[in-house]
User: What shape does this take?
Amino acid sequence: SQQGEEDPQALSIQEGENATMNCSYKTSINNLQWYRQNSGRGLVHLILIRSNEREKHSGRLRVTLDTSKKSSSLLITASRAADTASYFCATAMASGSRLTFGEGTQLTVNP
Amino acid sequence: DADVTQTPRNRITKTGKRIMLECSQTKGHDRMYWYRQDPGLGLRLIYYSFDVKDINKGEISDGYSVSRQAQAKFSLSLESAIPNQTALYFCATSDGGLSDTQYFGPGTRLTVL
Assistant: This one.
């Protein structure tokens, strides 16, 4: 079974609104990463958060990690139509180890 | 030029045929991965290689084999393709360092009839 599970599976919002996606995982991790995939294309790394970190920012992205709840959230503020994509979380058990991906959240931002 | 390239980008084949998907990278990374993506199932790891002499099975290696010809090249083979191997296949690389970021190729869409 997948280590990471995203929620919701699909999200549709209007341009300018914030989008929040959640990821839950089952076992202890070293780090958690978020990736973006435009339709039919390869994944692109967005942000990495380590197990000893609680929050990280990158531009309009904000990621939080709650290791006690084994969950993470990705917030995209002031969304744009160009943010339309699938977003995946991926977990690593140890630094430099292989990643386990969740099933993704399909985000649609309507102009 | 793209850092991670995959060939072919699209392939239609018939059941029982042998297929090879190729991946090349110019990032100088030691680690390379092959994933399969099916709708609603996310990415699943088929095989991975942490250096030229290292090959490891992932979670769904049955029906697949790989070859690491050089640091920059990692090929995935389907010895006898079957319809349920129809999927989008991605190659990825990483340096295995603290950044732990994986860099993906553009994908190969494989259809087995």
Observations:
- The radius of gyration of chain B is 13 Å.
- The mean pLDDT of chain B is 93.
- The first strand of chain B starts at residue 4 and ends at 7.
